[in-house]
Description:
The protein is 0% helix and 53% strand. It is mainly beta.
Amino acid sequence: MKKWLWIVGLVVIVLGTEVGMSRSGSQPVQMSLETFPVIEGEFQRAEVGRLFSFPADHGAHLDYQTEWWYYTGNLVAEDGRLFGFQLTFFRRGLVSQSERVPRESRWAGDQIYMAHFALSWISDRRFDAFERFSREAVGLAGTQVDPLYRVWLENWKVVQVGDNQYQLFAEAGDIMLDLALQDVKGPVLQGVAGYSRKGPDPGNASYYYSQTRLLLQGKLTVQSRVLNVHGEGWMDHEFGTSTLSGNQVGWDWFALQLDEGSELMVYTIRNVNGETDPFSSGMIIRADCSTHLLKFEDFILKVTDTWKSPQTRAVYPAGWIIEVPEEELTLRVSPRLDDQELHLSFTYWEGSVEASGEQAGKAVNGQGYAELTGYAQSMQGRF
């Protein structure tokens, strides 16, 4: 389901900055945050019936207030070690298109960008996460689709280099990730033809598509050692102008890649009383690229284990059974590392998971990413 959530403005936003968190011993940098000011105006809201066009829709949609590009993946290094990564770019419009006023200054800008970069050292039981902010001015951050798609914040970036070919780069602390991405399935429209409804009120929706099978190849530098890595990744792109409805506090989201060539995305939205909201949804993307939309009643998510954060004391689910009866699919999902909690401008859990189970009587295995929000703090007012 993704995301998000806007809090966070810094006085130093003009120049951009970075805050880091490491689970290997160092403490998160605490920063003074305040809500980004938003000039009143009419942003568009997601409605049924929008037609998508690629590559144009890989870029920014400034008529909508909030947007994000979400890259996650699992990697195997040449020495056998396992890693997971997340690189996310968030855009927040401060003024609607109808209220924009041309300004001469090169520093003038009405779009704020935030990015998260995290690495899960599965084999080493370590987790690192970093955050940057910048405005779109003077090329510090932004997106483009001409001549090719690109999204960036300073030197964190994803750049299209050819047909269905991309390059991802991020570095922070003692980590540098440089990956080639090959999209083997093309964009998959989530929800109803890309319209993903999240609640009962007008505008409680986003436009949402994914690249569900990205082949990854490249280099990961950790502690001054360069490792050749390969693996599979996932990209989510959402945009819209909405908030969670009044009784919704968070969500659990899963993106799983199965070894027989299909993918499964499901999310459940949680209400204040702990119940699952009926606007929860999902999608199966089969090996032949055909899709099956999953409504709330089409899948079952059961929690089988929990984990308590030593830092926030929040209790997160840490094991699940996902059932899709119509597809005869049952998966047991577990985190590859318990502590993948990010302590940045907001606190949430995002990390590498593995899956095993059965489909139509045959064994199936997989891997992917999960995101858990609303456990350490409510997402009300942030999405």
